C-alpha cells in the first residue's frame, strides 16, 4: 500500500492539539485561489524550480534526456509539458534550485518518520495529522496510515475539505480521533468562484460528521474578497450551531465536541506558486488585522459556539 506525499512536517503545533507530525498528501479536489500549499493541489509529483537559487552550472541540462530542460541561446529553458518528472535533474542540482515535490511512500515509510517523535506526542497530547491537499482523496492509504498509528497508540487527526464521496470519509473514521474540516462559504455560487467547486457536497459531509460522535473543529480560512465579513462568518457560525443541535438531537454533546477556528489569510506561498508556474491570484489581498479577526470571532460567538482565532 502506498500513496503520494509531498511533505512530512515534524513538531507541528498548528495542526491539532499538542506536538504533531503532519503528513501532507498530494492532490486536492478544490482549487482555492489563495491556497497556502499549491504544491499539494496536483495529484502527481511535480518539479518546483526556484530561479533565484540557480548558479547556472547547466548540470540539469546535461541530465535531462527528455528535452524538458534545454539551453536556448545560452539560457536554460524548462518546458513543464515535456517533463516526465523523472527527478534526474533534481539529483544533479546541488544549489536546490530544483526540487521534486511529491513522492510515492509506503505506510512503513511514513510510520518510520512518525514514530521518531512518539515521546513528544505522549507528553504533549499530540499525535499524527493527515493534511494536504486533500488526504481523503487517497482513502485507502489514509486509512492504512491511521490504522497503523492507532495500533501504535498514537492519537490521530485528519484535515479535510469535505469535498469527496462520503464513503471515502467513512473509510477513515474508525481510526480518526479528531476531525478538522474547512467551511469556506455558505453560498454555493460564491464557493464555486473561490474554490472551483460548489459547496453542496462539503455541507453534506459536515452534516454527516455532525451525526457521528467524533470531536470536530470546523475552520474558516478568512480570505479578503471571499468571506472576511461579519455577515459571512456569522452565517457560517449559524450553520455550525445547527450542526451542534443536530448532534445534540442524536444523543451527542455537540456543545462540547464541535467548535470553530478562524485562520487568517497569509501570503507566504508566493514563491511556491512561481516555482510551479502557477498564477498566484491572491497576491494583492491584504492580511486581516488582529482587530478584524477578533470582530469576526465575536460574530461567530453570537451563535453560542466555542470559537478560537489565530
Ligand atoms: S542544475 Fe540547478 S543550479 Fe545548475 S543550472 Fe540547473 S537549475 Fe541551475
Ligand atoms: S524531471 Fe526529468 S524530464 Fe523533467 S526536467 Fe528534470 S530531468 Fe528532465
Summarize this structure as a short list of keywords or feature phrases:
310 residues; alpha/beta; TIM Barrel; two-stranded antiparallel sheet; 23% strand; globular; binds iron/sulfur cluster
Characterise the protein shown here.
With 310 residues, the chain is of the alpha/beta class. The chain has two domains: 2-43 and 103-309, Aldolase class I (TIM Barrel, Alpha-Beta Barrel); 46-100, Alpha-Beta Plaits. 34% of the residues lie in helices and 23% in strands. The protein is built from twelve helices and 13 strands. The protein has helices at 59-63, 88-92, 107-114, 118-124, 139-151, 166-172, 188-195, 200-210, 230-249, 254-257, 270-275, 290-301, and strands spanning 2-12, 20-25, 46-49, 69-72, 75-78, 98-101, 103-106, 127-131, 155-160, 178-182, 216-222, 258-264, 306-309. The strands form three sheets. It has a nine-stranded mixed β-sheet. Strands 3-6 form a two-stranded antiparallel sheet. Strand 4 and strand 5 (75-78) form a beta hairpin. The model has no long low-confidence stretch (mean pLDDT 96). One iron/sulfur cluster (SF4) binds next to helix 1.
| Alpha plus pi helix count | 12
Main β-sheet: number of strands, strand sense, barrel status?
9 strands, mixed
What is the CATH third-level topology name of the largest domain? Answer: TIM Barrel
In total, how many beta strands?
Answer: 13
Name the helicity range.
Answer: 25-40%
Strand order of the largest sheet: 7-1-2-8-9-10-11-12-13
The CATH architecture of the largest domain can be given as Alpha-Beta Barrel
Ligand kinds: iron/sulfur cluster
Radius of gyration: 21 Å
Shape: globular
Count of domain modules: 2
* CATH domain class name of the largest domain: Alpha Beta
CATH fourth-tier homologous superfamily of the largest domain? Aldolase class I
Through-space gap between termini: 37 Å
Average the pLDDT over all residues and give the rounded result: 96
Binned strand content: 15-25%
Q: Which structural class is indicated by helix and strand composition?
A: alpha/beta
